[in-house]
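Many introductory courses stop at the sequence. We go one step further.
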Amino acid sequence: MTHGAYSDAVIDALAAEYADQVITASPVLALDRFAWSLRTWARAEARAELIHRHLAQHGIINNRGTPRTSLLVMLAASERVAARGRDELGLSPAGSAKIAALLRSAGESALSPDERRLLLGMEDGTR
């Protein structure tokens, strides 16, 4: 294995770390409604990180003297997905402000009963 960016096992392990860190920082992202977006973001972020590490160690030029085009293309695509995911999940300043405004305007009615119970548990420390 070279960089791991094609390995689901390697990507999933790093993505799980990222998801755990984000949920610790923003517990609302543990809600089921965020699961798919969180997984997509974390996998894209992990793939981009693995490619960055590889390129940092080996450079963008391969041993034949040509650019590592497939890695650079995959890196750009992964970074786009990761950036969009950060914004959608509120992990960027603009995304966070947008989500806060939406939640303020929608109020508790935007949450299912299970989500309300989960969030109440998070607020009182019983999570």
